[in-house]
Amino acid sequence: MTDEIALDKADYDFQHKHLLGLADYTKEDILYILEQAQYFREILDRAVPKVPTLRDKTIVNLFYENSTRTRLSFELAQKRMGADVVNFSSGSSSVKKGESLKDTIRNISSMKIDMVVVRHESPGVPHFLTRCVDAAIINAGDGAHEHPTQALLDMFSMQQIYPDLEGRHIAIIGDISHSRVVRSNILGLLKLGAEVTVCGPKTMMPAFVKEMGANVSYNIEETLQWCDIAMALRIQLERQDEGTELFPSIREYHQLFGITMKHLDEYPDFTIMHPGPVNRGVEMESRVADSDRSIILDQVTNGLAVRMAILYLLSGGTRI
Ligand code: NCD
């Protein structure tokens, strides 16, 4: 069955051992991953959506921060590829980068692990792990730094509408300052030649976005009129030390930056995305999330295919 999958690493020299962030990946690396993901996306539509590609691999999912779809998506991707999977979740926010993490990792590495998928509230933890263990490390989100697999699945989803993202107008709207999704998306999208505009309250607009090469707007109407795709981001109250002080109220935020049904009527061309979880009635009206302009659930399915492709490429295994 897997012979039908024309995966051939020989046609591109994919050099990476880890996926720590898209800062380290070239345009060619990204396009190659997205191309491989297409094969896995087709597998997901089969009656038996499984391949034995990782059957000799052991993977640990190390989640120090809450996660629903990213953790499930990784686990499902690993199981669909026949890997042995061990899950470690820590609901405790007191586990910080340092000795306790190092100890956990040392214990894990003595179990002969091939790959570690890690999510942690501290930026740089995935990089730190590369120095502690010999396994391939995949960053599933490190603080407000990067979330590369999310950005890859976002780009894959965009490509299903616009196969060539060169010159496309992508808007990212919401809590820019606390978002790791925005950083990875700006890095990836600019490498693929898209134009990126970030839009949100001034108090949530960090200087780094302009330095990275994105445009900045504080006007949602202007942004929605301009864009081909509007990706809304969750207001990350858990990452705001100042509570809700960055904007007067959730209601005012929604009035100024929420996507509404009226916007869909006024600007008929843009597609809606969101990495999830959606705060309905905040980033967008509930009906907007469920409308036929939204590809939010497609993003989740595509996430599985993209993560399968990444696991395959980083596993160093041979095609079966
Ligand atoms: C994002 C994350 O965790 O950074 N969600 C996700 O991975 N699906 C965005 C968010 O939490 O709002």
Write structural notes for this entry:
With 320 residues, the chain is of the alpha/beta class. The protein has helices spanning 27-44, 69-80, 99-109, 125-130, 148-161, 180-191, 208-212, 220-226, 250-257, 261-266, 286-290, 296-315, and strands at 58-63, 84-89, 115-120, 136-142, 169-173, 195-199, 215-217, 229-232, 271-273. It folds into 2 domains: 27-147 and 301-314, Aspartate/ornithine carbamoyltransferase (Rossmann fold, 3-Layer(aba) Sandwich), CATH 3.40.50; 148-295, Aspartate/ornithine carbamoyltransferase (Rossmann fold, 3-Layer(aba) Sandwich), CATH 3.40.50. The protein has 12 helices and 9 strands. Strand 1, helix 2 and strand 2 (84-89) form a beta-alpha-beta unit. Helix 1 (27-44) crosses helix 12, helix 2 (69-80) crosses helix 12 (296-315) and helix 5 (148-161) crosses helix 12. It is globular. The N and C termini lie close together (9 Å). The mean pLDDT is 90. The protein binds N-carbamoyl-L-aspartate. N-carbamoyl-L-aspartate (NCD) binds at residues 69-70, 141, 147, 150, 180-181, 234, 236, 275-276.
What structural category arises from helix and sheet content?
alpha/beta
Strand order of the largest sheet: 7-6-5-8-9
Morphology call: globular
Q: Which fold name is given in CATH as the topology of the largest domain?
A: Rossmann fold
CATH superfamily of the largest domain: Aspartate/ornithine carbamoyltransferase
List ligands, each type once. Answer: N-carbamoyl-L-aspartate
Radius of gyration: 19 Å
Percent strand = 5-15%
Largest sheet: 5 strands, parallel
Q: Mind telling me which CATH architecture of the largest domain this is?
A: 3-Layer(aba) Sandwich
Q: Would you tell me the overall average pLDDT?
A: 90
**Number of β-strand runs:** 9
How many H/I helices? 12
